[in-house]
Amino acid sequence: MAISTCSGRSAVITAFAAIVAITLTSTAAAETVTTVNGVDIDSSIVDMYLESRIQKPAEQATPAERDAVMQELTDIYLLTTQPAAAALGNDPKIKAQIELQSRAAIAQAVATEFFSKNPATDIEILAEYETQMEAAPSLQFKARHILVETQSAAADLIAQLNDGADFAELAKEHSTGPTGPNGGDLGWFSPDQMVREFSDAVGALDDGAHTTEPVQTQFGWHVILREDSRANQPPTLESVRDALKQRIEQTKFQAYLEKLRADHADKG
């Protein structure tokens, strides 16, 4: 992100918000960069704050970006070293806010360390892939639908279809859904991409058939035409590897949290 050019009170608020967003990272031996009212600002603080503001490594900062950040940090240290700051720092609300921000930063660091030490293995990724492929629907469907607000309106449309009306033309004329102008065309989809009531209705049809009763979902009442079906084409392992890795690692972390919660509950 670009360095903010706002000034005065809004700049201080923006700067303070960026500090809150900083997560703990490992840094090289820090050295003092500047001193404000007797308080040293070292290079680790400058680099972390800089990265939080420009969203890229500190060494990639331009001179202008670094100068802007140094001015923001100087302003922060100037404000926090004023005589009033000590008294304000003892305010219960301020102390609570600082405590929560500190805990949040440390919690983020602990979580980051957990993920780094518990990566998903190739065996785990393959096993998760096979599990999901086994659970994947066997068919994909190509369908159209007409969405209306009432059951009676859907029933009337079904009657017109039974009398030979064209499904796409009825959809263009009556459907309130976004696919109405396209004749209700939904293209190809897997059952798990639709709400359950809709998918169940499509799965119960033969290719070329429409529903004989209105189908209700959270969106309204549907009349559905199943145009075609084909074998589901599962994604390759490599195409979903990153998503599977993230899912596995998140599951590990959730299990770790659950254990911490259980241990805490056992202590009473």
What does this protein structure show overall?
The structure is a single chain. The chain has 268 residues and is α+β, with helices and mostly antiparallel strands. The protein has ten helices and six strands; from the N terminus they run αββαααααβααβαββα. α1 crosses α3 and α2 (43-54) crosses α3 (63-80). The two termini are 46 Å apart.
Q: Could you tell me the number of beta strands?
A: 6
Number of helices: 10
- The strand order across the widest sheet is 4-3-6-5
Helical residues, percent: 55-70%
Uncertain stretches of 5 or more adjacent residues:
1-27
Structural class: alpha+beta
Using only C-alpha atoms, the radius of gyration works out to 29 Å
User: How many independent structural domains?
Assistant: 3
Q: Overall 3D geometry?
A: elongated
The topology string of helices and strands comes to HEEHHHHHEHHEHEEH
The biggest beta sheet is recorded as: 4 strands, antiparallel
Q: Provide mean pLDDT, rounded.
A: 89
Kindly estimate the percentage of residues that lie in beta strands according to DSSP. Answer: 5-15%
Distance between the termini: 46 Å
